[in-house]
Amino acid sequence: MSVYFLGIETSCDETAAAVFTDELQILSNVVASQTELHSRFGGVVPEVAARAHLQRLLPVIDESLKHAGITLQQIGCIAVLNSPGLVGALLIGVSAAKMLAVALDVPLVNANHIEAHVFACRLAAQRDIFPCVGLVISGGHTSLFECQSPLEFKLLGATIDDAAGEAFDKVASILGLGFPGGPAVEREARKGDAKAFSFPRSFYKDERLDFSFSGLKTAVLYTAFGQDMSQRRHTLSEKMRADLAASFQQAVVDVLVRKSLQALEQTGLSRLAVGGGVAANRCLRAALERAASEHHFELILAPLSYCTDNAAMAAMAVEKWRRQMWAPGDLDAVPAYQPSQM
Ligand code: KG4
Ligand code: ZN
Predict the structure, then answer these.
(1) Is residue 224 domain-shared with residue 317, that is, in the same domain?
(2) For 99-147, how does the pLDDT look when each residue is reduced to its tens digit (9 = 90+)?
(3) Which 3-state string (H, E, C) describes 268-298?
């Protein structure tokens, strides 16, 4: 008989709950986005996010149980993504998870949000995807991992400043495209010329597997408005805005493809799994697909519904449950990324 898991995710601005089984069947995946609360600030306000999680989490859990067609009493394990993220936001999910595990007298298992973005590819593939190189591209992280198994993630490189998603959000703000920036820049880029501006591609020729997107963002700002902010032009022509979006997106895509190829070469692995919000970008997906057919590696892209934050990816915790690696009773919310330990 299947064991039912309740997954909880509250690391940033999505309140999410999912029900899945020990065979990694996803029975429900409910995400309540807070975009409407944060858009007027142009970014996620941590305190606002935490309060909204508090109001929304229990109704979201109820909805996930209803969609799955089961009751809370049938849940056999609670899985929570307790790190990394905004500490106040994470705490709401972690507290609810601990409370439910005690009340239902079932085990509590935790997993890492960043690593779970790679595991989203495993859910979609419906078969083992390990070993692989994992590329996680989100609003807070841009990281490459050597993943020998679901519980063995070795960090190969990461951004030294802005994350790729953060760069999309900031460039959207520079171009006056609103929040969240990724989908808005992608839409704008479709109208523009990706070769109009030659933007920096950091560490492109370097062996190291790190990223840097902060200089790229500044290059977009200076190209749009010049270096003297007091002379800042108030409007950009439609063509200029579209060309800037397309050229910026191309620079990000080129770097992500290049570093993925280097990671595959350096590890000797032949499979790439890509997750996180930026993995929803169609230009990037097409470029990775071209690279996979040219360089003969297997590409596993998280499906669009699993790219941005969700609780189905907490199914990574099933791997710990199999090994009886329960979370401690005093499990904490940990804001910074810490690699999982076997
Ligand atoms: O993984 P995610 O939902 O949250 C974090 O863990 O950070 O990623 C959110 C990020 C945001 O920065 C958003 O602008 C970006 O993913 N994003 C995109 C696209 N959709 C979301 N970036 C580029 N193109 C997209 N289509
Ligand atoms: Zn995420």
Answers:
(1) no
(2) 999 999 999 999 999 999 999 999 989 999 999 999 999 999 999 999 9
(3) CCCEEEEECHHHHCHHHHHHHHHHHHHHCCE
> How far is CA 275 from its chain centroid?
6
CATH of the domain at 260: 3.30.420.40
CA geometry: angle 74, 95, 325, nearest 5 deg = 65
> pLDDT above 70 covers what percent of the chain?
97
pTM confidence score: 0.94
Centre of ligand 1 to C-alpha 185, Å, is 11
Nearest atom in ligand 1 to 169's CA = 14
Q: In terms of residue numbers, what domain contains 282?
A: 128-306
Query: 139 and 95 in one domain?
Result: no
pLDDT in tens, 200-239: 999 999 999 999 999 999 999 999 988 776 656 567 899 9
Residues near ion ligand 2 (Cβ under 5 Å): 138, 309
Residue 147 lies in a domain: yes
**pLDDT for the residue 339:** 73
- Tokens 């590890």 -> residue: 267
User: Ligand 1: which of 11, 83, 168 to mutate, most ligand atoms within 8 Å of CB?
Assistant: 168
- Pocket of ligand 1 contains residue 281 by CB under 6 Å: yes
Ligand 2 mean position to 115 CA, how many Å?
9
